[in-house]
C-alpha cells in the first residue's frame, strides 16, 4: 500500500519533490553531500509523527564507527504517534534525484505525508516524502528482492533485527543531529530533546543525555563523523 501511495505521488508530482529531513538531513551540509542539488532548505512540522532512535545504523556498523557492545548503534526514524508533532527540515529535490533518495533510505518506508511550513503571514500545507519506520519482515519481503540482496545490503555486516527497542543512539550521529537541529532554530532543537525518543518510546533524548552526560563529552564533531564515512550520509533520514 505504501509503495502504491509513493508511486502515485511521484507520478503526480511536479519537477521539484519536497523531502523531510529529520536526522542527519536536518543538516544542509549533509543534504548537499547526499544529493547533487537541493532547493529551498527550510523548516517544517509533520503532525502525527515523532522521531525515534530505533533503527540499527547499518552504514556505521559497516564502517566501524559505532559501538555494538554498548548497543549504541541506533539512527532515527519517523514514527506515527498520534498527538505528537515532528519538527524537522524540508528541502526540494529535482525528480531525477528521487531514485538516489530511495536508495539512500532503502531500509525505511518512504511515504508522502502532509507537512506545514510557516510563511511570513500564514502557514502553508503541502505534501513531502518522509522516511518512516517499518519492520524486519516487511523490509526483507518487500524491499529486498531476494536473500542475496538482503545479505549484500545488511547480512554481511550485521546479524540480528534492524528495528529494535533495546538500542541507544550512535553517539556521533546523535551529536550531528543535535548540531543540525540547533542550527535550524530553537523550536527544532527543543523538539529533538523533548519530543524525540529512544527505542523504548518512553525515554526522551533530553532524559537520556541527563542520565548519560558522558555521551556528549565523548562524541566526535560532526565534521569528523562525516569524514569517517567518506562524505556520504546514508540511511538515516
Task: Provide structural commentary.
With 237 residues, the chain is an alpha/beta fold. It has helices at 2-12, 28-34, 58-63, 98-104, 136-143, 147-155, 171-184, 186-194, 205-211, 214-218, 222-228; strands spanning 16-21, 38-56, 72-94, 109-118, 123-132, 168-169, 196-198. Strands 1, 2, 3, 6 and 7 form a five-stranded mixed sheet that branches. Strands 4-5 form a two-stranded antiparallel ribbon. β4 and β5 (123-132) form a beta hairpin. α7 packs antiparallel against α8 (186-194). The protein is globular, with a radius of gyration of 17 Å. The model is unreliable at 221-233 (pLDDT under 50).
**What is the N-to-C order of secondary-structure elements (H for helix, E for strand)?**
HEHEHEHEEHHEHHEHHH
Structural class: alpha/beta
Average pLDDT number: 88
Task: Count up the helices.
Answer: 11
Main sheet makeup: 5 strands, mixed
How many β-strand runs? 7
